[in-house]
Each structure stands twice: as C-alpha cells, then as structure tokens.
Amino acid sequence: SYAAPSATAPVNERLSITNTSLTGGYTAVKFGSGSINQPVSDGLDIEGCSFADQGYQAVYAYMAKGVSVTGNRFTGTGSHDDKNYCQMIDLNISGPAEITGNTLKYDKTGVYGLYLRMLGGSADAPVLIANNVIDINTREQSGAGIQLYNSSGKPFTGFTLAHNTVQTATAPGGVAIPLIINVKSGTTVSLSL
Fold first, then answer.
1. Rounded Cα–Cα distance for residues 166 and 132 (Å)
2. Is the dihedral of CA 31, 90, 131, 170 positive or negative?
3. How far apart are CA 79 and CA 53, in angstroms?
4. pTM of the model
5. Centroid of chain to Cα 50
6. pLDDT recorded at residue 128
C-alpha cells in the first residue's frame, strides 16, 4: 500500500495471484490500506493458491472492494515466533466480493479462520462467503472458525454467509467457537445464513 495524506493517492488495484505457493512470513498477502485518507483499493483475485505457516495473517484485505478469494488451501501450525492469536483470512471489504471454496486447517494458539472486520455489500455488489471448510484447533487460547468483529460501529450489510463447514477444537483452558458475532453496540448486521 502507498501511504499519503491525499484522497487521490495511488492505491493497490487489480492484483491477481493464481496457483502460487506462499510459505511463512508474518502476512502472506496484504492488500489495501489502513489509512482513512486513501481511496478504497479495487480488484484482488487469489485463486488456487497454497498458504502455509504464516505467523499472523495469510490474507489481509483492508479498505478494499472487488475481492475474490476462491479455491485456496490454508494450513499451519504455531511456533514460538507467532503472535498469541492470528487471523488467517482477515477482511474489511465492500462488495462485490466472493470468498468461496477455500480450505483452512490450522493448529495454532488463538486462531481465527475468517476474521471479518467489516463487510459492506449491496444488492448490486453483494459479498458472498460460502462453501468454505474451516478446521481449527485454538489450543489454550480463545478463537473462532468465523468471527464478525467490528469496533467502529460501521454496519455489516449485503452479505451472505452460507454452506460453510466449521469444526473447532481446543486444549484445556481454551475456548473455540464456530461462529462469533461480536460487534459494537448499535451496529447493524444484515445477514443471510
């Protein structure tokens, strides 16, 4: 991402990653910006890739639209260098977007399979999260297969969460939950299950 104090600053656009193996690292793919001074990044396609052993995030898309993450395999185990929690697919996106047909298998302290910070879809630009298989072991920390987490109060709109399979496990002292909806008071969540 390019950081500049301008609403017209250049941003990431039209990135395609196909049939690629990405191993290790803190974050494998980061797309978009955390800066409110930048326009939204547009056009991320990740298809048929293999992600293994990232320490914090495999895919991080922030302030992005036109995101497609389909048919990928995400695997990993923890190491002493990792954060004490991690989000494997971490999203703050608007539609259109498609997160489908992915397999996530992690045995890692405090893991979250899909960490959804904001989903802003509409009838014309929906967000679809479907047909993903998530199998996580959070060990002795808390974690979730899918978590909707929003501390900003922005609404979650125009998205469908359907036909996903989530299996969780934990060690003594840990808590693993298949689906958590944890949003700021007053936040609207418009969800089709």
1. 8
2. positive
3. 9
4. 0.87
5. 15
6. 95
Contact 23, 53 (CB under 8 A): yes
The whole-angstrom separation of Cα 181 and Cα 30 is: 24
Closest alpha carbon to 160 in 115, 121, 108: 121
Locate the DSSP E strands across the chain: 13-18, 21-23, 27-32, 41-47, 50-52, 57-70, 73-77, 86-100, 103-107, 111-120, 127-130, 133-137, 142-150, 156-162, 165-169, 175-183, 189-192
**Residue owning tokens 């998530």:** 134
Cβ 180 vs Cβ 144: under 8 Å: yes
Q: What is the pLDDT of residues 161-180, one digit of tens each?
A: 999 999 999 888 888 899 98
* 190, β-bridge pairs: none
* Close Cβ partners of 185 (under 8 Å, ≥ 6 residues apart): none
Contacts of 106 by beta carbon, 8 Å cutoff, 6+ apart? 74, 75, 76, 77, 86, 88, 113, 135, 136, 137
